[in-house]
Amino acid sequence: MSNKGSDVQSTTVPKEKVIKHIVLLQGPVGPFMDRLHRHLLDGGYRVTRFIFNAGDRWFSSRLKGQISFNGSLVGWNREFERFLLADRPDMVVCFGSERPAHKIARELTGEQAIPLLSLEEGYLRPGFVTVEAGGNNASSPLAGSIPSAEINAEALHAEVANPTDYKSFSSFVRYSGTYYIIRTFFSWKSDRELFHRRFFPPLEAFYWLRNAYRNVFHGGADNPIIHRLLEHHPSNYFIVPLQVAADSNLKEAAKGWNSQRLIVSSIQSFAKHARQDSQLVFKVHPLERGHNRFESLIQEVSKDHGVLGRVHLIDTGSMGLLARHSAGMITINSTSGLSAIHHGVPLLVIGKAVYEHPKLAVCGNGKPDFDSFWHYSENYPPVAPVAFRHEYLDWLRQQALVRGDFYDTEGIKVACAGVQTRIEAIIRSRGFSDVGQSVSESDDEPCADLAVSL
Asked: Within 10 Å of residue 286's Cβ, how many Cβ atoms?
């Protein structure tokens, strides 16, 4: 039979979708990055995941595309640059844009115009995780920005309303303990230069036991202080959230500030310039309760300046409750600042933060004027209207966050779907219409690690 034109057209093979290549670096402690790896494979993506230490490997099910890297930061820079030039992936995904390996990845992907998606704990919790292009917090593409006047506030609020509280703190603690113990005792010596947190295991164990003890037993001491503040000093105390010492926000974005400097400088100014009946409250971060103890420093500085009875340190209690009834909040760049914005209390941000905008906060830019902040109403415009503040928070949820959780089983499924949606949106924005292809059964099967050692 002759081949007629109509016959040829009827047997033409449809154009195949192009398989997009996603690279995964380190994730949060626990199985999230492994679940995301499988989720993307199931969605038709080619996935390469780099494993940096024994902790990463413990939470890996050795899916297709896994590569182990053992080496220094210089070696990682050289190897990852070579990998990007050779493979030209469509996107790189990491958790914590300021981790040593990820800072290098951000620089290299920026040079080669490869998009990087940075995950982080949710700016606004519970029920959301942060997923942004390029970086988070001070490195966020939204840093210093506010929504446009044309935004549909009602539709925006409906889109981000009713988040789920996954109550995953116990899972986080369990995953953290497992991850850091295995990473510390079973990683190669060459892996350690890329550790984003370093500690002495017995001492770290002691700190976490002390954290648990203080969480249980210090509430009895903190509750009367909190009750007294709410009952006798409403809107007449200033709240200062103390951040985790290992927080990546306390690096370049902190503008040279840390908790010790904040404690000393704020108490000195408070003693000289605040009203005599006002109070100053330092709130310890839940993850820092067992690690750093500021009580002696606060007592010493307060006593030296004659305000010992007006300055308090609390380990427990609700930050939202304390912020809502305060006269104002002072922070280096903690996400607790978003609580102050939500509740409409004056906010002084010292360093760089995602919410650093003059319509939302007094921006210290590394040189905070504590003296004036104690008398906010006399020195600054009124706090932004409630409609604008809530619109900003809804906009931040929509633009920077997706629903889900990094540690709860169901929350991980929701977050993986959200991350994939964000990946697809970024790829489409770069001019690609096909973002995946069905995978064969063999794509799901485990395979041995490829190893890179430098």
From this structure: 15
Three-class secondary structure of residue 133 per DSSP? strand
Distance CA 227, CA 13 (A): 73
Residue 308, classed as helix, strand or coil, is: helix
Q: Are 326 and 368 in contact, with CB atoms under 8 Å apart?
A: no
| Global pTM value | 0.85
Distance between CA atoms of 138 and 253, rounded to whole angstroms? 6
Specify the DSSP element, H or E, that contains 279. strand 279-284
CA 4 from chain centre, in angstroms, equals 62
CA gap 104, 199 in Å, rounded: 23
The answer for residues whose C-beta is within 8 angstroms of residue 377's C-beta and 6 or more apart is none
> Locate tokens 């600054």: which residue?
380
d(CA 336, CA 124): 9
**For the chain, what percent of residues have pLDDT higher than 70?**
84
CA within 13 Å, CB half, 304: 11
What is the sign of the dihedral through the CA atoms of 257, 260, 262 and 265? negative
pLDDT tens per residue, range 248-269: 778 889 999 999 999 999 999 9
Structure tokens at 87: 């493979």
What does the alpha-carbon distance between residue 412 and residue 62 come to, in Å, rounded to a whole number? 19
Separation of alpha carbons 257 and 235, rounded Å: 26
Residue 336 to residue 121: CA distance in whole angstroms: 13
Cα 390 to Cα 175, 191, 318, 333, 404: the distances in Å are: 34, 44, 20, 20, 21
- pLDDT above 60 for 5: no
The residue type found at 210 is R
**Phi, psi (rounded to 5 degrees) for 348:** -110, 115
Residues in a beta bridge with 241: 283
Dist. CA 429–CA 152, nearest whole Å: 22
- Chain centroid offset of residue 70 CA: 26
Q: Which domains does the chain have, with CATH numbers?
A: 18-127+163-198+404-435 (3.40.50.720), 220-395 (3.40.50.2000)
CA distance 165 to 296: 36
How far is it, in rounded angstroms, from Cα 37 to Cα 32?
A: 9
In Å, the largest CA–CA distance within the chain is: 104
CA–CA separation, 446 vs 34, rounded Å? Answer: 12
What pLDDT, in 10s, does the model give residues 39-81? 999 999 999 999 999 999 999 998 999 999 988 899 999 999 9
Look at residue 418 and give its three-state secondary structure. helix
- Return the structure tokens found at 51: 């494993």
For helices 32-42 and 409-429, the axis angle rounded to 10 degrees is 50
